[in-house]
Amino acid sequence: MNSITPEVTGCRIILVAADQPEFQPIKAAMVKHPDYPTPMHGANVHLLAFKPDAAELALLNMGEAIYVGLLTGGYSMTPLNIFIGKDEAAHIYGVEPVEADI
């Protein structure tokens, strides 16, 4: 699945894992979930976005599931939200959806 820049506005976009060669750097929107405590910098969620390629889309269309591997470092899992499309994600986190720059 290909990582894309989250298609939302009204928040800061950061590059995650840029200095970690063992990981693929991805862009994240720093947003706030209203139901959870917020740290001093005002964001409590790294909102990531991914688009399937043609082969992955074909598998999804055949009913295959999406699997998520969350590296926990041996600690308990953190809460995880999964959305389809930017509109619902933008609504939950109080930002605006935008069209992607292609």
Describe the structure.
- With 102 residues, the chain is α+β, with helices and mostly antiparallel strands.
- It has one domain.
- It has two helices and seven strands, in the order ββββββααβ.
- A three-stranded antiparallel β-sheet has the order 3-4-5, with no helix packed on it. Strands 1-6 form a two-stranded antiparallel sheet.
- The chain is globular, with a radius of gyration of 15 Å.
Concise account of the structure shown:
The protein has helices spanning 54-61, 86-93; strands at 2-4, 8-9, 12-16, 26-31, 45-47, 49-51, 96-97. The protein has 102 residues and is of the alpha+beta class.
Would you spell out the secondary-structure blueprint of this structure?
Blueprint: E1 2-4, E2 8-9, E3 12-16, E4 26-31, E5 45-47, E6 49-51, H1 54-61, H2 86-93, E7 96-97
Antiparallel strand pairs: 1-6, 2-7, 3-4, 4-5
The proportion of strand residues reads 15-25%
Number of β-strand runs = 7
Shape estimate: globular
Q: How far apart are the termini?
A: 17 Å
- Uncertain residue segments: none
Largest sheet: 3 strands, antiparallel
Rg, rounded, reads 15 Å
Average pLDDT taken over every residue: 88
What is the N-to-C order of secondary-structure elements (H for helix, E for strand)? EEEEEEHHE
Share in helix: 10-25%
Number of domains: 1
Tally of DSSP helical segments: 2
Q: What's the arrangement of strands in the largest beta sheet? A: 3-4-5
Q: What is the SS-derived class?
A: alpha+beta
